């Protein structure tokens, strides 16, 4: 099956938290890359402290992408905010084609 949906999470690292945040996100992406229907999860981050980081998930099914939002491991993103490792988080989804 081809690519039909993409989800993104834009985060802004909190000052002084970049190294710890990257380790935590790398571990989360390793877990998410094993999710059924996930073609790939990636993290793009700037070397400078003033730009957002973008996590992107690529999906072969809208239903599988939607179902993965309920996974317990995604609570990790909001836990990072409560631990003050990030200062902003925003989520988006994009449909490329109908399943």
Please give the alpha-carbon distance between the first and last residues.
9 Å
Based on the structure given, which CATH architecture is correct? 2-Layer Sandwich
The computed structural class is alpha+beta
SSE sequence, one letter per element: EHEEHHE
In the residues, how many domains can be counted?
Answer: 1
What is the topology?
Elements: E1 5-13, H1 18-32, E2 38-44, E3 53-59, H2 62-68, H3 75-82, E4 86-95
Antiparallel strand pairs: 1-3, 1-4, 2-3
Features:
single chain; 99 residues; alpha+beta; Alpha-Beta Plaits; four-stranded antiparallel sheet; 4 strands; 33% strand
Summarize the structure in short.
By secondary structure, the protein is an alpha+beta fold.
Fold and architecture overview:
- The protein is of the alpha+beta class.
- 30% of the residues lie in helices and 33% in strands.
- It has 3 helices and 4 strands.
- The protein has helices at 18-32, 62-68, 75-82; strands spanning 5-13, 38-44, 53-59, 86-95.
- It has a 4-stranded antiparallel β-sheet with strand order 2-3-1-4.
